[in-house]
Amino acid sequence: MQRFDVIILGGGLVGLTLAIALGRHGVQCAVVDPAEPAATMAPGFDGRVSAISSASWKLFEAIGVAPHLAGKACPIDRIWVSEGLTGSALDFAPDPDDGAMGFMVENRELRRAIDAAAQAADGITRFQPDKAADVVRDAYGVTVRLASGAEIGASLLVGAEGRGSPTRALARIPVATWAYPQTALVTAIDHEIPHGNTAYEIFYSGGPFALLPMLPGTRSAIVWTVPNRQAPAMRKLTGRAWLAEAEKRMGTFLGKISLAAPMQSYPLGYHRAARIVDERLALVGDAAHAIHPIAGQGVNLGYRDAAALAEVIVEGMRNGLEPGDAQLLARYQRWRALDSLSVTIMMDGLVRLFDVPGWPASLARRLGLSAVQRLGPLKERFMAEARGESGPRPRLLLGESI
Q1: Of 98, 254, 297, 326, which sits 20 to 30 A from 244 (CA to CA)?
Q2: Cα–Cα distance for residue pair 29/58, rounded to 1 Å
C-alpha cells in the first residue's frame, strides 16, 4: 500500500490547487480524479469562464500557477453595478496603484495552468482516471481502495468532488440546500467597442445580466440569469434571436455583437454543509458550499478553503502533528465557518433583494445603490469583498509562502 500525508478525492480547480499548495510545502499528496485528462484539457472554447479575485490571484502567484496564465487573463479594473440600463449605479474603480480587482480566465486555460503547475510541483501523485471504490476512516488514518485495484493510505482525506460529493454523503454530514427558481445561460460574445476591462452587472427583476471582460478587449462572457419558466424558450432561440434578446438587456454601448461560444445553461441552487470536517476528513470547495453566481465568488470561496486548509496542515506538521489531527481540523472548521457563512448569506440576500418585483422595491434598490456610491467606507467594504480581501486571510492569499 502506498502511503501519503493527504489523499484528495477530486482533481478539479480547487482540489488540484490544494494539492499544489501542499506539495510545494513538502506535504505528500495523492489526487484521485475520475475525469479523463483528454476531456478536461479539450482545446475548444466552451464559453465557461471564472472570475478570479485579486486574493485568489495572489494564491496563484504564491504556488506557481500565475506564470502559466501569462497573457491569458483579463484584468478587471472596474465593476459597474446598476438596476436596469437607466437606474442608479455603483461604479467600483480602485486607484491604479491598488491593482486589478480580479481577473477573468477561460476555464479551459485555468485547468491547463493548474495542471501544468501540478506537474511541476513535487510531492503530488495523481491517480487519473480513477475513483475511490472503498474508503475506511478511523482513529488511526485513512485507507482508500481504488477502482483500479490500487490501495493507498494517508492521515487525512479531503473531499473535493464538487456539489454532489459522495465523500460528504458517506460521512452523513447534513446539508442545507435549496433551488433558486432561476437558470443561468452562459456564453460569450464578440463586440465592436472594447470593454475597457470593465465587468457589468445589470440587475433585472427576473435575474442579473452579467458582462465579464475577456481577452482580447473585444470579447466578453455573459452570465444571464432567467426565470426557470423562460429558460426552455431561451434555449430554443436561434443565434440571431438570442442576440436580439441580449441587446434588450445590455443596450448598444458595446456596439455590434456576435456569438463567440455555444450557449450552455445551468440550474441555480445553494447548499452548505452543516460542518466541513469529520474524523480524518475535510471538505473544500463545492463539496462544502455552493452559492449563486451573482458576484462570481463561488470558486473563490473554494480557493480560500484550499489556502486555509494548506496553512493549517503545514503549520501543524511543523509542530509535530499529523494532517488528520483533530486539533487541526477543528481550527480549519473555525477559520472557514464564519467567512463562508457571511459570503453565502450576502450573496443569497442580493439575489432575493433584486428579485422583488414592483416599483417600491425598485425605488428602494436605486436609493440603496446611490447611498453606497456616496458613502466611501461602505463602498470600500464592498470592494474588499469583491477582491476577496475581507476578514483574516491565510498567508497564501497575501501572496506569501506558509
Answers
A1: 297
A2: 22
Q: What pLDDT digit, counting tens, does each position of 117-172 carry?
A: 999 999 999 999 999 999 999 999 999 999 999 999 999 999 999 999 999 999 99
Helix (H) or strand (E) segment spanning residue 30: strand 29-32
AA letter at 189: I
- Name the helix (H) or strand (E) containing 32: strand 29-32
CB 167 within 8 A of CB 161: yes
Say how many C-beta atoms besides its own lie within 10 A of residue 172's C-beta.
7
Please name the residue that has the C-alpha cell 483533530: 326
Whether residue 383 is predicted with pLDDT greater than 80 in this model: the reply is no
Measured CA to CA, the distance from residue 33 to residue 17 in angstroms comes to: 13
Measured distance CA(267)–CA(354) in Å, rounded: 18
**Distance between CA atoms of residues 74 and 377, nearest Å:** 27
Give the DSSP H or E segment for 342. Answer: helix 326-354
Q: Look up residue 118 and give its amino acid.
A: A
Query: Whole-number mean pLDDT of the chain?
Result: 87
**CATH class of the domain at 2-176+269-398:** alpha beta
HSE toward the beta carbon, residue 168, CA cutoff 13 A? 25
Write the pLDDT tens digit of every residue in 96-112.
Answer: 777 888 999 999 999 99
Is residue 203 within 8 Å of 83, Cβ to Cβ? Answer: yes
- What's residue 42's pLDDT? 66
pLDDT band at residue 341 using 50, 70 and 90 as cut-offs: low
pLDDT at 135: 97
Strand ranges (DSSP E) for 93-191?
102-106, 124-127, 132-138, 141-146, 151-154, 156-159, 175-191
Residues 6+ apart with CB under 8 A from 368: none
